[in-house]
Design a protein that fits this description.
Layout (H helix, E strand, L loop, with lengths): L1 E8 L3 H9 L4 H4 L5 E4 L10 E5 L6 E9 L3 E8 L2 E13 L2 E11 L3 H32 L4
Antiparallel strand pairs: 1-7, 2-3, 3-4, 4-5, 5-6, 6-7
Helix pairs in contact: 1-3
Length: about 150
């Protein structure tokens, strides 16, 4: 199962990146996250991991496997028979605007079963995260973030 969603944001890429890598703040702007706790301090990048708790899903530890600072990161988690990879990409549209693409891919022996059980919820959560990221980045760009 692979799902991707995209949104244009009225904020520059640097602002979107700041919101995106502040993973512990995600629950403030998306109801798809109950809590996110970084498991290391310091710069966010390859090897960084976080414990993610989402409504109606089992808590998971995601580890960053790819990172291009200011542009993208991918993190993944593995559970019995399934690997989940979540991609986060920011593209510069110029004139202080950016395009964000969020994706999720499940693979492995049990991925079909996991998709049947949780696929709809997963797609809803990714769409919620895309909208929430847009709103949070635009609020920060406008100086109205909380």
């Amino acid at each position: 199962m692979r799902f991707q969603t995209q949104v244009d944001v009225d904020a520059d890429t640097e602002t979107v990146w700041r919101v995106l890598i502040d993973v512990e703040a995600w629950p403030k702007w998306t109801a798809s996250m109950t809590s996110v706790q970084r498991l290391q301090s310091g710069e966010f990048g390859v090897g960084s991991s976080a414990r993610v708790v989402q409504p109606k899903l089992k808590a998971a530890v995601y580890t960053v496997t790819e990172c291009e600072v200011g542009r993208s990161f991918t993190w993944e988690t593995k559970a019995a028979g399934v690997t989940v990879r979540a991609g986060h990409l920011i593209e510069d549209l110029g004139q202080g605007k950016a395009r964000v693409t969020l994706s999720i891919e499940q693979s492995g022996l049990l991925s079909g079963i996991v998709d049947m059980l949780f696929g709809k919820r997963t797609r809803q959560y990714v769409a919620m995260e895309t909208r929430g990221l847009k709103n949070a980045a635009e609020a920060l760009a406008a100086g109205t973030d909380s």
